[in-house]
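Hello K.,

You asked for the raw outputs rather than the summary table, so here they are, unedited. I folded two proteins back to back in the same session to keep the settings identical. This is the first:
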Amino acid sequence: MAKPHPSPSIEVESPVHRAARLGEEFALTAGAHDRAPSFPHANFDRLAQEGLLALNAPQRFGGHARGLEDAVAVIRDIAQGEPSTALVLAMHYIHLATAARSWPAAWAERLGREAATGISLINALRVEPALGTPARGGLPATVARRTANGWSLSGHKIYSTGIPILSWLAVWAHTEGPDPRVGTFLVPGGTPGIEVRESWNQLGMRASASHDVILRDVAIPADHAVDIRAPAAWHPQDPTVYAWNTLLVAAVYHGIALAARQWFLRFLQTRAPANLGAPLASLPRFQEAAGEIETLLDVNKRLLRSAARDADEGHPPRLTESGQIKLTVTSQAIAAVETAVRLSGNPGLSTEEPLERHFRDVVCGRIHTPQDDSVRIASGRLALDLEAPVP
C-alpha cells in the first residue's frame, strides 16, 4: 500500500523541467548503484517529493494529467541520470495509463491518488521461467483459484523490475477450470505468501532489482481481478496503451544514449594527444563521428515526440508502427553508444568513466517486448498481405 509521504512540492516549474533537474542529481549516484548493485530508493523519495509519480494521473485525483509526450520527455531525462530508476518509473506510468483505459474506474482513482500522496508504484509480473514473455503466446503457469473470499494466486515470476519498491504487483495469471480466462490480478506488495529471490545479476540495468518472485497461495479480494478475459480476447491490443508501452521503453534507452553522447563530446573537446597538439574535436574523423551520433539521436527525438503527440491527440500509431518505432529508437541508441565506445578507445571502456556503464545499459533495449524479430515479422507479414501477429 502507499507509504505516507509529504505532499508534492508546489508547482513552480513544469514536470519536464523537474525531471531534467532530477536526472542530473541521480547521475551523481548512478555509478555506485550499478557497482553494488543496489536499488535507488532515494531517487523515488525525490520523485515523490517533486510530484512526478502522479505525472499521468488525473488532476481530480491529485495528478498532473500529462500525456504521453510529456511522459516520454520525463523518462528520457531521468534515464540520462539513472536508467534503472527511469525504467521502473516508465512501467508505473504505463500501468496508470492502462488502468485509466481498461480497468474499473475505482482502481484508476485509487492508484492515481496513492501515487499523488505517497511512494506508491505499480508494475507487472508477467514473465515466467517456462513461458518467457507472454507476448509470444501461451498461457501463464501462474494460476488464480477461486476462494470463498476472492482469489488465491500461486506461481513463479522472473524479471520483476522494481520489486523492492512496488506497492502493487499486476500479476498475469490464468483461472482454473476447463475454460480458463487470463489477465491481471492486483496483489498489494507485502501480502503474505510473496517471496522475493534476489536473482538479478545482469550485465546492464543492474540497479533495477528485476528479481524472481514466488507466489504461494497469495490471497486477494475478488475485486482485485481487474481485467481477465478469454485468451483470444486479448488481441488486438489497445493501440494507445501499446504506444505508452513501446515509446516509454524506447525513451529509457534514448536517454542512456544521450548521456553517452554528452560524455563523448566532452571527451573529444578535452582530449588533446601530445602528438596532435589540439583536441580530438579538431579532426574531421571525429567531427564526422559526432555528426553520426547526432543524426541517430535527432531522428530518435523526432520519432518519439511525433508519435507521442499523435497518441495524445487521439491518433496513436498502428500496433506494427509502434513496434517499428521501439525497434528503430533502441537500435539507433545502441549504434550511437557503440560509436562512442569504438572511437574513445581505452578511456571509454574504463570503469572509472560512465561510458562503459552506458554501453552495458543500452544493449538491454533489445530484450524488451516487442523484440526485434517479432517487430520485423509482423511488419513483413503486413506488407505481404498476410495476417500479421501483434509485434
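The second followed immediately with the same parameters:
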Amino acid sequence: MKILFVGDIVGRPGRVLLRENLKQLESRFGPFDFRIANAENAAGGFGLTEKVMNELFSMGFHCLTSGNHIWDKKDFLEVLDSERRLLRPANYPPGVHGQGYGFFLSDKGTRVLVVNLQGRVFMPPIDCPFRKAEEIIRDSNAEVVVVDFHAEATSEKKAMGLFLDGKVSCVLGTHTHVQTADEQILPNGTAYITDVGMTGGHAGVIGMEKSGVMERFLKGTPSKFEVCKEGLILNAVVVEVDETTGKATNILRIYEVYEK
C-alpha cells in the first residue's frame, strides 16, 4: 500500500496549495491508499477550527495529526473529544481532551494504526513518548502502523525511529517546519525521516511573515505573527508498505515548489 503524509499545513496558503494540487500529486506519485496530514497550524497558523478540519477531510484525508499548537483555540477542545479522525499527541497526561491514536481503514481495506506523539526536548514536559509508544503498539493487531513524532530535537526523533524500528511501519517527524534530507528505511524495516517539513509559504520564517518574527528577535518584545503567503511549497513523503508484513519498502521525500 502507498501512504501520503503531508507536512505541517500552515494557514490558508497551505490549505489552498493542497486543495489545488493533491490530484496532480496523486497522478504523479499515487494512487495513495491512505492519506494523513499534520494540521495543528492549519487555521490562521495556530491551531485548528472545525470548519478548517472539515475542509481538510473533504480533500480525502483519512486522518489528521497535530502537536502542541492543537490547544491554541480553546473553543475547539470539544471537537477533539468527538472527532475520532483527529489526533493529538498521545503522551499528554490522562484526562486531556481528545485521543492520541486511532485505527482506520485504507482505501484497500487495510487496517492502519496511526499514533501521534510529542517530544520532550525543548518542549513542554509531558509523559514519556517512548513508553507511551510501546504501550500503544504492544497489543495492536493493525497491519500497518504510522507514527507522527512531533518533536524539536533531531536526536530525540532519531532515537524514536531506532527505538521503534521493526515495530512500526514508519516514524515521521513533524514540528520544525524544515524538511530534512535523511529519509531512509531503517535496518528492521521502518521508514524514517527526521522532519517531513511544511506546506505553505516558505518566504518568511517557518510559515510566518518575516516582519513580526524579526521584530521579536531584535527587540525581545511580543509581536503579532501573520501567516506567510509567498514562496509556496508543498512538503510531504510517500511511504510504500508491504501490508502482509507491516514493513516499509520505500520512502520518497516530496519538495514541490509552486511559487518561488
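The longest helix spans residues 11-29.

Happy to rerun anything if the numbers look odd on your end.

Regards,
P.
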